[in-house]
Amino acid sequence: MKMFISSVVILGSLLSLHADEAKSEATISKERIEAMRSMESAMATIQKGFLYNDLRIVEKGVKALKEKSIHLEPPLRGDELLLNKKETYKYKFTKKQSYRMNIYADDLQRDFYNGEKKQAMYAYTKILKQCMSCHERIRRW
């Protein structure tokens, strides 16, 4: 009887652990989607700042982009269906993309502040290239 009760408790614990793991992966996936949406919105804000020639709008967009890009993480186990399990460069690649985006965002803000609008637009294009590069490799676009 004790063995039966202990096996039921162990089975219940394992099922609970599996449910928590699946729940956390779903939550992480939602957080990643929200981060992508926020970065897209930040890029749109930067572009709006260019169109209105308003430094405050550009700064707001750069700040939002930098806040979200530092949270870029590689796909997790829940994305194994999307990705090939043998691809081990994902972690380093996403961190490098995040780092580059932040560097180019700083360049963009500095150039816009100094009145070098064409250089700032070039930095914007570099940021967009980092976005597309990541989506191309990870999302297979």
Verbal overview:
This protein is an all-alpha fold. The chain has one domain (2-139): Four Helix Bundle (Hemerythrin (Met), subunit A) (Up-down Bundle). The chain is 80% helix and 0% strand. It is built from four helices and no strands. Helix 1 packs antiparallel against helix 4, helix 2 packs antiparallel against helix 3 (90-113) and helix 3 packs antiparallel against helix 4. It is globular. The N and C termini lie far apart (57 Å). 16% of the residues are buried. The model is unreliable at 19-23 (pLDDT under 50).
The overall pLDDT, averaged over residues, is: 77
CATH fold-level assignment = Four Helix Bundle (Hemerythrin (Met), subunit A)
CATH C-level:
Mainly Alpha
Helix-strand makeup class: mainly alpha
* DSSP strand content: under 5%
Order of helices and strands: HHHH
Tally of DSSP β-strands:
0
How many domains?
Answer: 1
Number of helices: 4
Contiguous low-pLDDT stretches (5 residues minimum) are: 19-23
Q: What is the radius of gyration?
A: 21 Å
What features would you highlight for this structure?
Four Helix Bundle (Hemerythrin (Met), subunit A), 4 helices, mainly alpha, globular, 141 residues
